[in-house]
Amino acid sequence: MNLLKTTLDNGLTVLVRESHTAPVTSFWVWYRVGSRNEHLGITGISHWVEHMMFKGTERWPRQKLDQTIAREGGYLNAMTWYDFTTYYETLPSDKIFLALDIEADRMSRALFDVDEVAAERTVIISERQGAENNPLFLLDEEVAAAAFRVHPYGHDTIGHLCDLQTMTRDDLYRHYRTYYAPNNAIVAVSGDLNAGEMLRMIEQYFGALDPSSEIPPMLAQEPSQRGERRVWVEGNAGTDYVMLAYHSPEATHPDLFALTVLSTVLAGGASSLVGSGALTNHTSRLYRAVVERELAADVSASLIPTVDPNLYRITATVLPDRAADQVEEALLAEIKRVQREPISRDELEKAKQQAQALFAYSSESITNQAFWLGFSEVFADYTWFRSYLSRLDAVTVEDVLHAAQTYLIPQNRTVGHYRSIEH
User: Fold this and answer.
1) Least buried of 5, 168, 291, 372, by fewest C-beta within 10 Å?
2) pTM above 0.90, yes or no
3) pLDDT tens track for 375-387
4) Which CATH architecture has domain 3-206?
């Protein structure tokens, strides 16, 4: 990997990767702020600020921003998550300077017009209400709230409705001015470029921006869970769901790779850290236990790398003529089996191959290469991305057994059932 990493005098972390496979470049700016940095009263504020960035600046008003990128054959987007808010543009390489101009301007000169804030409140509330139509959103929200008593990972990125109704323009602008600063940001660039030339451009556009004098630390640490917790959610979705959530280690913990392999054995390759791909989970243990036995329509799992310990989730959709308790019992039986008996060497190698294949799928495009550079720098550093495959390959049968016996235990578990009721 032809990679340059440096830090500007104002604290901006810069990662530049040359990849001459196509005449395009992807430019990402990551801010170390997400729902992890929120508290009750301002939940959802990071996501709302993300929306306001698209309202523009004096130099880059909203319509000009969108039209300019589209006219040059590029695209732009953004996302907010637990630990970050990020913005990116992917453009023909000779037009990538537009991305630097836009993002440097947005870092310090976003307008937060009062009328635009008011209009966006309606949009954000509508997004929240739309999410509430999804029973899995409702179930996940309750499970996370029960699993986390202290840590902000217990509330969703979209925020609570009461906070979305009461936050002010000043709240949003204060959040922006606090966290949107070069010393709280990462620039990650990948594509058909010259690294030295790109660094000079980044210094030209970002080097004069002032750092933040004080970025508040997030010091909350979730205490160990002392017993199983349970929640029930009722609605009229017409389908029941079961969710098992286990406290899982932070991204930099050595057990995370063993848990990745374990999750792949249990629920298939799409449950690994790098997201979904072309693989199915039809040979996984949980699929055989609940789908092939006609207890559930599907089963999946989720393990996400984060700065602090988070949750490993297993979710199943209960078939209409079955009970959620039956599905839960079958899931727990398989978990007990993987704690009792080491997985086979064949299962280990197959799980590694699936996870490695998904990693390859998720990092083959120029845009995704830049994504992974910045994403891994948020919770660890870029070497996490570079060493992913080798660290996964080093996982042993004994490591997987240790992960199962350490993390998938009842006192570390929160169970959620969504019950569909008739009105």
Assistant:
1) 168
2) yes
3) 999 999 999 988 9
4) 2-Layer Sandwich (3.30)
